[in-house]
Amino acid sequence: MTDWESIVRGHGPTVWRTLFRLLGRRADIDECFQETFLSALEMSRRQKIVCWSALLQTVATRKAVDRLRQKYRDREESAAIEAAASGMSDPYRAVEEAERAGLLEQAMTRLPPRQAEAICLHALSGWSYQEIGQQLGMSSSAVGTAIHRGKQRLRELLEVSLGAQPGGAS
Amino acid sequence: MNQNLSDPGDEVLESYFSAMRGRAVPDGPPETRISETIAALRAAAGKKPGVFSRVYTMKFITGMAASVLLVVGVVLVAMVMLRSPEVTFGEIVERVRSAHLVSFVETVSMPEVAKTVPGQTMKMKFLINDQGQASIQSDEGVRTVMDEKTGHMVELMPKTKTAIVMDMKNMPKQSNASRDPLEQFKKLEGDSANDMGRAQIDGKKAQKFNAKVMGQEWMIWADPQTREPIRIDMTMNMMGQQITASLTDFDFDPAAPDDAFSQEIPKGYTITSLAFDLPDISNREQNLVELLRGYAQRAGGKFPDKLDDMGPYMNLVMRKSLSLSKTATTNPSLAWMHFTPSSADMQWITRFWGVQQFLGILPKDGWKYLGAGKTMGDSDSVIFWYKTDKGYRGISGNLTAADLQAAPQ
Predict the structure, then answer these.
(1) What is the reported pLDDT for B384?
(2) Which numeric CATH code is attached to A4-164?
(3) Residue B351 within a domain
(4) ipTM metric
(5) Which residue of A58, B143, B196, B346 has the fewest C-beta atoms within 10 A of its own C-beta?
(6) B310 lies in some domain
(7) Angstrom distance (rounded) from CA B182 to CA B129
C-alpha cells in the first residue's frame, strides 16, 4: 500500500515551491497542491511510479500551467502581481520583478501546454533535456526543439506585451 | 542549472525567468495543507478497492457458475496488467473500454496426471461481452451460457442431451456494478505484476509478467505493440492436483453471431434445474465467521490455513459433487470442470467472495489471520483480528467476535 503520508511530507515542499514559483498566489497554490497529489494517486493506479519526485514536479508544473491559462482567461493577473510583489524588500525592484514574472506567466499561457511544461521544468526547476524527455515521453532532441521554439515564441510575446505597456518598448 | 537556456540574445528572456525564480518562495506548505492533502488522498484511495478485491468480486460469479469462470476474472485483470513498460494505464483503459466483445481459448492441463495418462487436457473457447454475458464452448461439445445480470446460466451437454439450468437469486445489490467486468476495467489497479522482461512466446516477441493472486501463480505474456495479451498461464491447486490453465488466441471485438449468448434449450433435452439463494454477506464480520464455521464443519473441525487461497475451500465443495458431474463428461479426470455443488455448499462458498471483499477494503497491515493449525472451539485463541476506527476487533476460536485492547501477535 502506498504510504501517502511519507510521500506528501517528503515531496510536499518541492511541489509547493514548484507551484509557488509559477503561480505566486496562495489561493491557486493551495488548490494545485492537493490536485497534484490526487493526480499522482490516479497515475499510481495505472502505472508503477519509479521516481515520485520527478512525477510530482511534472504534475505540479502541468497543474500550474493549466491554472495560469485559466487565470489569464479570467483576467486576474493583477492579483498575482500584487501577491508576488508582497514578499520583496525593495518596493521598486519588487514591483518590477513582479511585473516581469507576471508578464512571463501571461506569455506562457499562450504556448502549447507541452512546450510550456518543458520550459518550466528546464528554466525554473533546472531539469536537463534528458530528464524532461523521460517524464514527458519525448526524446531529448524533441525537448530541445520544443524549448527553443517556446523561447522564441516567449520573446515575441514579451516584446508585444512591453510594447503595449505605457512607456514600454516600441 | 539552465545550462541550455543561455542562447545568444536570450538575456532578456532570462531576466524574466530570473524574476520568476526569484519569487519569495516559502520552504514548504503549511501543516494544515499537508494534513488536508493526506486526508484527501486517503479518502480517494479508499474509494476504490484494491485489485484483489475486485478480482474476487468478479469471481463471485465465477464461483457461482463453475471454476471455469475463474478465467474471466484472470483475463480482466491480466489485460490491465499486461502493459509493456511503455504502455500507460490510460491507454489500457481506453483499449478495454473499446472492447465490447472478447474471445479466447483456455487449455486446461494437469501435468502430474499427464505423466501417466497422456492427453488429459481440455480446451474451451470463451466469448464474453460488455453486457455481462459469457459463452463457453468445451472441446467435448458442452456449451455454457451465462448472464450475470439475471443470474441465469444454461449448460447444454449434447452427448447426453441434458441441460442444467442454474438460477442465482438474491445477488447482493452492492455488487451489481462489480459484476459488470468492463466497468471494472476502468477502475482496476495494475501494480500487482512483476515485469520479467522481454521474452518469446508462441513464436512472438512479448513482455513477460509474473503475478500471484489468490494463491495462484500467473505468467503473462503481452504484445508490446498492440498492448494485448498473447498468453496467460495460470497455475492452481485443486483436489490435490496442480492444474495449469493457459489462455491464448485472444481476439478483441471479433465478429459473433446474433445468438452467441442465446440461452434457449433445444427440444428433446432433459433439464435439471438448480436454484441458489445467496446468503446475506453485508455484515462482513459475521460473513467471515460463517465462512470459518462452514470450513471447520466440512474439514473435521480444522480452520483453513489461509483466508485468501481459494483451492482448499473449493476442494471441500467439489469432493461432494463430483459423482454427479462425472455423468457430464467422457473424461472422468476432468469431471471437476462440470461439478454441480449443493445449494448449501454454494451458499457457503459465496461467503468466500464476500470475505475477499472484506479483506480488500482493510489496509494490508490492518488485519491478520491466525487460524492455521487451530480447531474450532478454543475460546481463548484469537484466530482473526482487524483494525477498526475505534480500535481492534477479534474473532476467537469458538467463533465469537469481540473488541480487543490490542492486536494479538
Answers:
(1) 95
(2) 1.20.140
(3) no
(4) 0.73
(5) B196
(6) no
(7) 8
Interface of B with A in 231-250 (CB under 8 A): none
Give the range of the structural domain holding residue B220, as residue numbers without chain letter. 51-279
- Give the amino acid at B149: K
Three cell numbers at B338? 462440470
- CB of B40 less than 8 A from some CB of A: yes
Q: Tell me the domain boundaries of chain A.
A: 4-164
Q: Which of B279, B310, B325 is at the close of a domain?
A: B279
Chain A hits for B48, CB-CB cut-off 8 Å, are: 45
Distance CA B404, CA A134 (A): 50
Q: Are residues B371 and B268 in the same domain?
A: no
Q: Which of B220, B249, B279 is the last residue of a domain?
A: B279
Give me the CATH number covering residue B273.
2.50.20.10
Q: How far is B125 from chain A (nearest CA, A)?
A: 29
pLDDT tens per residue, range B82-134: 333 444 444 544 565 566 788 888 887 766 655 555 555 778 888 888 777 88
- If one counts every other C-beta atom within 10 angstroms of the C-beta of residue A128, the result is 15
> 473424461: which residue's cell?
B331
Helix (H, G, I), strand (E, B) or coil at B268: coil
**Grid cell of A26 as nine digits:** 496562495
Q: Does A37 contact B40 at a Cβ distance shorter than 8 Å?
A: yes
Q: Which residues lie across from B125 on neighbouring strands? A: B105, B137
Distances (CA, A) of A89 to A18, A80, A81, B172, B288: 22, 17, 15, 65, 65
Looking at the structure of chain B, the number of domains it has is: 2
The alpha carbon of residue B184 is apart from the nearest alpha carbon of chain A, in Å, by: 13
**DSSP of B379-396:** TT-EEEEEE-SSSEEEEE
User: pTM for this one?
Assistant: 0.44
- Could you give phi then psi for residue B128, rounded to 5 degrees? -125, 145
Chain B contacts of A98, Cβ < 8 Å? 19
